Amino acid sequence: MDLARLSPSRRRLLAAGLLLVVAGALLLRHVGGGGAARPAVAPLRPARAAASSRPQLVVDVVGAVRRPGLYRLRPGTRIADAVALAGGSTARAELTLVNLAAPLADGEQVVVPSRSSVGAAIAASPPAAGASPTAPLDLNTATPEQLDALPGIGPATAAKIVAFRQAHGAFHSVDELDAVPGIGPSRIAQLKGLVLP
Fold first, then answer.
1. CA–centroid distance for 23 within its chain
2. Phi/psi at 145 (5° precision)
């Protein structure tokens, strides 16, 4: 096409058309794909890198939950967060025995008991208070009912022992019971031989 032979009005019309095509292409690039997508994606990459470099807790969630297994959580999360990640509790869960507000520790096992396992634990619990159990009770696996059967430990103190264990991890010695509210040196002396860490 020879632009010199076109009339001035046709040249203006052609220039205006080209200008509209260029403006439309720039607008599409900015709105549709190129301009808007880059700022939205760019901040996500550093955030993902930062999230993966943060320390994480690994906890084992077992018992009456929908998806038992190992889960990674950020520090400062609670047992309720771990149970939620495991799909929540099942209809048979006995959540009154779990301190959902307790903070998690790395390597901790969160046990959500079911009503049937609580019944079995009660049936298999040591003899009533004052009677001598045949074997020492493991502080790290004992149920509240088993702890309640120990001399000088009532339901409230048993619940405190379980809550302390969930919040701070496993007991490494019987003397660590001193950190549980309501248990002092005389009670620890009374429990020696009856419990083990």
1. 52
2. -65, -40
